[in-house]
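quick one, 295 residues, struct below
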Amino acid sequence: MEAPPCRQLGELQPEQERSSSAVVGLSLCDSAPLLWRIQDLKTVRSSGLVGALLGALPRTPRQNIRLGRPLLLLPEEERLLRERHSAAALPARNQDAVGTELQQRYEEEEQRSYEEQSILALEDRRSALLRAMTSSSGSECGAGSDEALQGRLLALGQNFTFPRSALAVQLSTARAGLSHCQEARAFLQADWPIREQDSPRREARYQVFRDLRGRGFFLTSAGKFGGDFLVYPGDPLRFHAHFIAVCLTLDESICMLDVLCVARLGSNVKKTVLLCSPAPDGPVHYTSLQWSGMV
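---
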């Protein structure tokens, strides 16, 4: 097992951070930062933040390969946006009042649709009886048959009821309406989601994320590879990850068996393992691990 210097990281110069004029709106679900608006997704993607899509598509709700909104951000991605003043929490809304208003509107629309469909169903029944009158007028006694059918038409108009179980309801499958994500809103008053960094490990993760992102790399979660981040040289839609980043504090000890396991795993998936340790008020130190064979 070798630990050569990470030259590829050193070749890239940190890019200048700048505040974006576009402010994305975060919707917090418990402690998870979510993005719902299309323009917000485009904004964070253009700044190199990937996140993970969680929602189902309207036309194919049961598949789990191609997903849609919302976009779940990593805690480090959300903190980076906050430090750049490029994100703010969406204004809180009275969910009880909104729910009551939406329910009232839905019930009124449903009642209006029921009345319209009742009239159409009654007209359809009357048309069927009139066709029966026309077809039977030549074979039966004209006067008696007409009087009977006229009576049936009158009784139909007085006693007809349209069952609510037969009510046709229109479902929107082309586009999901998101009423809580306003398409047009004024500039957001900063209401930053505050999260205290309560552990040195979380702070180390963020410092590594910020440094790698500043060097131009794209990062996603690496939980299934036993690390903290997967590091891509470009957009994950176009490149495979080159590194598995494992974040450690400078004074943190690590078991040699864990080092061997993560190095062997990185070799099997053709990725280089990076041990990343940020120095206090200094640069991040990187050590690359590659499996070279048994001695």
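The first helix runs from residue 7 to 11.
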